[in-house]
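USER: If only I could read backbone structure tokens as easily as an amino acid sequence. It would mean a lot if you studied the pair and described how this chain folds. Here is the record:
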Amino acid sequence: YHAVPDGIRFAIQGKNAVARLSQGAHRFPAHTAEGARYQYVFHDFILSQGFIGFSAFEDDSLASVKIPSSVTKIEYNAFNGCKLLTSIDIPSSVTEIEDGAFACCFNLKNINVAADNANFAYVDGILYNKDLTELVSFADGIKKDIFAISSTVTSVRGYAFMGCSVERIEV
């Protein structure tokens, strides 16, 4: 079960279920059936804080996520361990992504960053800061034997490769 903080409304679309939550704290089941895959689409996502918090969806059954434009920050471990997650859409409003936000998302292959996002870019399975000098996260669903860190990269975030299936990283 997941607690939903005050002031958030969103829809969860999954196997034979649509739940709409609003006003106050609620709890809802993470799964409707064994192996069910949810697609979380956030509608009218209202967050006065403007962020997705620490471990908010850790170890959840998310299949895809569209971050709403009201969000500016994705905190540490927000989606850590979402083993079914294959794609996430990050809008231009996101200005900060903390370490480990997408760690151990073993099927994550697409981190779609809005073209007009001034802070982040996604290139060939890697989430970088906009000027490609900081490697933020490796999409764990991308399978590579060898990954060579670009010469433009001057720093690598903590947990950037946690859960990836790369056999060798070249610096």
Observations:
- Confidence is low (pLDDT under 50) at residues 1-48.
- The CA atoms of residues 91 and 144 lie 27 Å apart.
